[in-house]
Amino acid sequence: MKKYLTQKLAASKGIITKQMEDVLKKENIAKDTLLEGVVNGSIAIPANKNHKCLIGAGIGKGLATKVNVNLGVSADRCSFESEIQKAELALKYKADAIMDLSVSGNTQKFRKDLVKRIPIMIGTVPIYDTLVRTQKSLKDITLDEWFDMVEIHAEDGIDFITIHAGLNQKCLNTIAQKPRQTGIVSRGGSILAQWMVENQRENPFYENFDRLVEICRKYDVCISLGDGLRPGALKDSTDAPQIEELITLGELVKIAWDQDVQVMVEGPGHMPLNEIEMNMKLQKKLCHDAPFYVLGPIVTDIAPGYDHITSAIGGAAAAMHGADFLCYVTPAEHLRLPDADDVKQGIMAARIAAHAADIANKLPGASDIDNQMGTFRKDLDWEGQFRCAIDPEKARKYSEFSINDVCTMCGDFCAVKRSNKIFKNSCK
């Protein structure tokens, strides 16, 4: 077996890579602690060797909660220019990663453009591209075609790939015996499930997981083990198929680690608020403390148009109890391809959730900016408040009609101004 210097192997040799140096500059973590986390798998630094402009970032234990932005074209709305604009918004509003989920058009050109221009982590789901590029009936796609596309994405410089390797025949049998309200809501999971049923074969990525690991080791790609059976409705939350797949994912984590390949594990999905803590702890237990990447969780099913809010509520709770990476959800979730404004709202909601969780987890330095904001509010220092704001543009716009040093909410009844006056006089 040929040895490639992955981030994980480098850490085991005590080597500080350029990407590790990037992480140390951004995070309040000691060098030895970072190395230990990468070695034992509780920290991942997705960093494809072909993503030359990448500024490394870490995901996992002891690090700030990270936020991912999904984008990509569909057959109905195939404008790569619009998706590049969304990627630039992700940079502007300080997302930590981008996932390209394109399912139409010249996907490889777009993917290469992202890798060339975007300095944050980039992820994809290669099996989508297999359908786009082969233009074959799903049943007729061969084993080699599935894996050839994984290698193309890896060679193109993608830092992490979502592979639904845990959805095996045993899981499908469980779903058949215990039907779900919403079935399989994962796009990648449903594609593989259909291929498995039509061909009466095992999941190719489960059955040939070593082949997947070998490709990822060659290019130093982090495997994001997809949750093909994530719940798509509250009623399906924490059911037998979800847990059965999670157990399998934990087994695959160990196989990848043994070959010096980094892994993240993806999680739910739609889930009642009271089940989130238990799910996060269960994942960490079954998957050996691997970084956990969650979509939401979305805590109620009745808020189309507001799912960035339902997701932020769930995301904050999830990150407070162990999740390391939040996939943003936009107001357009369940309804349409998001536009630029949807993207911004999704990013802000997810970043607020991530930051709130970091404060709750007492991450060193997380509350420093909040303490600064408190001082600026006490001093009625508007410019200072704008500098601390997560969205300075919006804060400044809302304050346009404020009167002198107070806002229009209170005016002369401003409690802060009155309090300052009281204590200034009492201290004389």
Short summary:
This protein has 19 helices and ten strands. With 428 residues, the chain is α/β, with parallel strands linked by helices.
Low-confidence stretches: none
What percentage of amino acids are in beta strands?
5-15%
Number of helical segments with 4 or more residues: 19
Mean pLDDT: 95
Could you name the CATH homologous superfamily of the largest domain? Radical SAM ThiC family, central domain
Name the overall outline. globular
Second rung of CATH, namely the architecture of the largest domain: Alpha-Beta Barrel
Encode the helix/strand succession as letters: HHHEEEHEHEHHEHHHHEHEHEHEHHHHH
Strand order of the largest sheet: 3-4-5-6-7-8-9-10
Q: At the first level of CATH, what is the class of the largest domain?
A: Alpha Beta
Helix content: 40-55%
Walk me through this protein's architecture:
- By secondary structure, the protein is α/β, with parallel strands linked by helices.
- It folds into two domains: 7-360, TIM Barrel, CATH 3.20.20.540; 368-426, no CATH class.
- The protein is 49% helix and 9% strand.
- The protein has 19 helices and ten strands.
- The protein has helices at residues 7-12, 18-26, 31-40, 80-92, 107-117, 126-134, 143-155, 169-177, 187-199, 204-207, 209-219, 240-258, 276-286, 307-320, 340-360, 368-378, 382-388, 392-398, 415-426, and strands spanning 43-44, 59-60, 66-71, 97-100, 121-124, 160-163, 222-225, 263-267, 292-295, 325-327.
- Strands 3-4-5-6-7-8-9-10 form an eight-stranded parallel β-barrel, surrounded by eight helices. It has a two-stranded antiparallel sheet with strand order 1-2.
- The longest helix has 21 residues, at 340-360.
- The relative contact order is 0.10.
